[in-house]
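Format notes (please read before filing issues)

Several people have asked whether sequences and structure tokens are stored in separate files. They are not. Every record keeps both together, in the order shown below: the sequence lines, then the token lines. Line labels are part of the format and must not be stripped during preprocessing.
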Amino acid sequence: MSNPWSLAGMIDEKRLKDDEIRKLKEQVAQTDKRAQKPEAENHRRLYDSRGGDDDDAEALGRSLERSESLVRREYNSGAGRLGKPFAMGDLITENQLQAQIITLVE
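Then the structure lines:
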């Protein structure tokens, strides 16, 4: 393995991180595909059986609850594999998430 302080070492480190990010994106995409199909079927069944805005709100609530658990599972998986830097996140991402929250609240 090359010296981590050399240019080759930094390139190797970047490649490893890029591979890890690619794998995480693939896992998220697969999870999203699995989660979307049953949710769409459930939403259609609810809408067909009762119809109306209340059903849409209920479906949205269930979807958000499922999304939260998916995000938590992926976070825990990433934190376990990638360690403290992943768990801490980075300042840019944190600021972007805060901006999105502010936009949603407004």
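For reference, the curators noted about this record: Helices lie at 7-49, 53-82, 84-88, 91-105. The chain has a mean pLDDT of 76.
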